[in-house]
């Protein structure tokens, strides 16, 4: 079981928690655990990768729409502010990953960072577990794909370049909003979009293959921002893009609606109705094949807008792709989406 760390890292020391702006209203509580394994096997037909690595449970970014929130109650925590401030750290995950990749049975399959919570959330600045795991992947010639909202990924340019030259890697920046103000209302402690576009530019200049994820698309809130997001991502060097419709499983729905009503009280009802228009009258759809895409005329227009902008800009539209692994590796086949959001 996770054990609470009595004295979390001091944010004023050199090894610190790398958040943006003012400190959060609630204290951060860090719990350390020793994981039995590092690799999580994905059995969902909706995504292409089979393996993922998740150094942390819970996420400081506090995105109201985070689909991973329902995993926190399994640890005895809540899916709301507990998910954002009761962070579990897998302190031995680098050693566990090394043990897995050095097995003769390991076939150097694609590994995703992260399939659950953000591997570059602020506490990574202190623990450096993601960096350590990426080093192991480079050492064992294992291709990786990363999706993050954290500008902290810039710190690891040297490791990413090693991966790019060897097994291969792609970094996707999740940027669902074009402006910092919109983002702050819904994803309050993630790096602002301006920093994420800047991060794309820095990664591209370093020779890293980059993508932009407009994820999630929230009809009535950010669908009209798709052209600007893709335009700025392309200008920053992204070569591909993908999208995922908002998911509201289990506890996520009430949390998202409460945040939306607080931040945008006069638009709340309109946005929820727009979402229902893309879900056949429902707020969410848990079925495989339907969870991350929509239906109906409104979704068809979003699809058309996204595809048209990608074509105009020369962005590869990842409608069922994943970063290409190195020769000799295997991934599952089929009409899956590229990455979990």
Could you please describe the fold and organization of this structure?
The protein is of the alpha/beta class. The chain has one domain (26-317): Alpha-Beta Horseshoe (pyruvate-formate lyase- activating enzyme), CATH 3.80.30.30. It is built from 11 helices and 12 strands. It has helices spanning 81-85, 93-101, 124-127, 129-139, 157-165, 180-186, 193-205, 226-235, 252-263, 268-277, 296-313; strands spanning 3-4, 29-33, 39-41, 51-53, 56-57, 86-90, 111-113, 144-148, 169-174, 210-217, 240-245, 316-317. The strands form 2 sheets. The protein has an 8-stranded mixed sheet with strand order 3-4-7-8-9-10-11-12. Strands 1-2-6-5 form a 4-stranded mixed sheet. Strand 8 (144-148), helix 5 (157-165) and strand 9 form a beta-alpha-beta unit. Helix 2 (93-101) packs parallel to helix 4 (129-139). The longest helix has 18 residues, at 296-313. It is globular and about 55 Å long.
């Amino acid at each position: 079981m996770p054990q609470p760390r009595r004295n979390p890292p001091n944010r004023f020391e050199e090894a610190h928690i790398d958040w943006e702006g003012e400190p959060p209203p609630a204290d951060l509580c860090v719990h350390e655990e020793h994981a039995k394994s590092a690799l999580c096997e994905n059995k969902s037909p909706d995504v292409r990768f089979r393996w993922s690595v998740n150094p942390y449970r819970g996420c400081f970014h506090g995105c109201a729409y985070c689909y991973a929130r329902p995993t926190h109650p399994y640890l005895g925590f809540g899916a709301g502010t507990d998910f954002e401030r009761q962070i579990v750290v897998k302190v031995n995950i680098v050693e566990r990953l090394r043990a897995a990749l050095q097995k003769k049975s390991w076939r150097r399959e694609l590994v995703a960072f992260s399939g659950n919570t953000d591997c570059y959330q602020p506490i990574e600045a202190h623990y450096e577990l993601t960096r350590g795991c990426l080093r192991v992947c480079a050492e064992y010639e294992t291709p990786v794909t990363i999706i993050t909202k954290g500008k902290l990924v810039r710190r690891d340019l040297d490791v990413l370049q090693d991966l790019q030259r060897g097994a291969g890697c792609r970094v996707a920046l999740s940027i669902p909003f074009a402006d910092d103000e919109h983002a702050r209302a819904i994803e309050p402690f993630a790096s602002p979009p301006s920093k994420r576009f800047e991060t794309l530019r820095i990664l591209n200049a370093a020779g890293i293959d980059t993508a932009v994820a407009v994820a999630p698309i929230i009809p009535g809130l950010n669908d009209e921002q798709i052209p600007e997001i893709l335009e700025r991502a392309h200008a920053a060097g992204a070569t591909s893009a993908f999208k995922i419709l908002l998911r509201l499983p289990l506890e996520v729905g009430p949390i998202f609606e409460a945040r939306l009503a607080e931040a945008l009280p006069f638009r709340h009802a309109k946005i929820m109705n727009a979402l229902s228009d893309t879900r056949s009258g429902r707020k969410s759809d848990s079925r495989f094949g339907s969870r991350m895409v929509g239906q109906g005329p409104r979704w068809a227009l979003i699809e058309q807008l996204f595809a048209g902008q990608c074509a105009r800009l020369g962005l590869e539209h990842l409608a069922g792709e994943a970063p290409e692994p190195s020769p000799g590796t295997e991934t599952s086949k089929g009409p899956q989406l590229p990455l979990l959001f």
